[in-house]
C-alpha cells in the first residue's frame, strides 16, 4: 500500500513545492525587519546601559552598535539576554528593551533556519 502512488499525490507535492517557494521571500523579509528592529533596540539598550548602568555596561564589554565588536562581546550580550539577567536591574526600560531583543533573537533564528532549509531544499 505504501508503494502505491495516488493521483492526488502529485498535486499535493506540487502545492508543497509552490508553498516552499513562496515562503522564502517571507522568511527573508522577516529577517530584514528583525535586523532593522535589532539595530534600533540594541542602540537604545546600549545607550541606556552606558548612561544609567555603567558597571553592567563595562561588564558586557562596553558594547556599541557601530564599532568593530569582538565575537566575545556579542556572545556576552546574547548570553545576558538568554539568561534573563536583565531582570536583576529592576529598571523597566532595560527590562523592556531586553525582552524585545530576546524576542527578536528568537524570530531571527527561526527565520534564518527556515530560509536555510528552503534554500538547501532547492539545491538538493
What would the average pLDDT be, to the nearest integer? 81
Helix content range: over 70%
Distance separating the two termini: 27 Å
Give the biggest sheet.
Answer: none
Count the strands? 0
Helix run count? 4
Return the string of H and E elements: HHHH
Broad structural category: mainly alpha
Cα radius of gyration in angstroms: 21 Å
Strand content: under 5%
- Structural domain tally: 1
- How would you describe the shape? elongated
User: Which residue ranges are poorly predicted, with pLDDT under 50 across at least 5 consecutive positions?
Assistant: 12-16
Task: Write up this protein.
With 124 residues, the protein is mostly helical. It has one domain (25-123). The protein is 77% helix and 0% strand. α1 packs antiparallel against α4 (92-123). The longest helix is centred in the first third of the chain and has 46 residues, at 7-52. The two termini are 27 Å apart.
Brief description of this entry?
With 124 residues, the chain is mainly alpha-helical. Helices cover 77% and strands 0% of the residues.
How do the helices and strands line up, and which of them pair or pack?
Blueprint: H1 7-52, H2 54-59, H3 71-82, H4 92-123
